[in-house]
Design a protein that fits this description.
alpha/beta, TIM Barrel, binds D-xylitol-5-phosphate, binds zinc ion, EC 5.1.3.1
Length: 227
């Protein structure tokens, strides 16, 4: 039986599933979360458009929890630092969208943010193995980025497991995040494969009681995490 108390599970609700015109009230509903996950989309890197730095700055000013910004935008090298400057606790860019990912991660850290890198389902993680220490979190997408409410891709679990094994082998402290289709019926698979940070949009904001949904996800992840 796993001792769940010594394992940190982070639950980051995605406001993509929130009511955008009631953002302040929506944020108040997730005060027990660890971070609020903020999906920035540019209609170029992904076929959907959300919001930019001005909106993120307002969310930052209103949120009861720190921001976990997920940039699904092209030319991350150019734009990502702006989100760190706003004060986001964590800024994650896509590996596929960055020309110099290590330089960019260093820049984000120098501004004071946690530096994250995300990989789409078809992108291998092995290229990150030698530079794990340059990042504070690695996001393994469990859907094609662009939209909420899609089905969890269980076929990403072997990739996540390889990454978790490598991180452990190297004694890395990097957080391993999953995003897309994460809910009460799928979170255990990701925790078992080694994830410790979980993004959930519809599973939290679609629930009658988001606080209870966060608690349920947290406990399902903690019981399933392999030690
Ligand atoms: C998808 C976004 C996700 C999305 C997750 O491109 O990155 O953060 O909001 O939504 P659910 O949890 O509904 O799959
Ligand atoms: Zn996301």
């Amino acid at each position: 039986m796993a001792d769940v108390a010594d394992f940190d599970v982070r639950i980051n609700p995605s406001i993509l599933a929130a009511d955008f015109v009631n953002m302040q009230a929506e944020l108040a509903r997730i005060a027990t979360a660890d971070f609020v996950h903020v999906d920035v989309m540019d209609n170029h890197f992904v076929p959907n458009l959300t919001f930019g730095p001005q909106m993120v700055e307002r969310i930052q000013a209103t949120s009861p929890v720190p921001l976990d910004v997920h940039l699904m935008i092209s030319d991350a090298d150019r734009w990502a630092p702006e989100y760190a400057e706003i004060g986001a606790a964590s800024v994650t860019f896509h590996l596929e969208a960055a020309a110099q990912p290590v330089d960019l991660a260093r820049r984000l850290r120098s501004i004071g943010a946690r530096a994250g890198v995300a990989v789409k389902p078809a992108t291998p993680v092995e290229q990150l193995f030698d530079v794990l220490d340059e990042f504070d979190q690695i996001l393994v997408m469990t859907v094609e980025p662009g939209f909420g409410g899609q089905s969890f891709m269980a076929d990403q679990m072997p990739k996540l497991r390889r990454l978790a094994d490598e991180a452990r082998r190297r004694g890395s402290q990097v957080w391993l995040q999953v995003d897309g289709g994460v809910g009460e019926s799928t979170i255990a698979q990701a925790a078992d494969a080694g994830a410790d940070t979980f993004v959930a949009g519809s599973a939290v904001f679609g629930a009658d009681d988001p606080g209870a949904a966060i608690t349920a996800l947290r406990s399902a992840a903690a019981s399933a995490h392999r030690h």
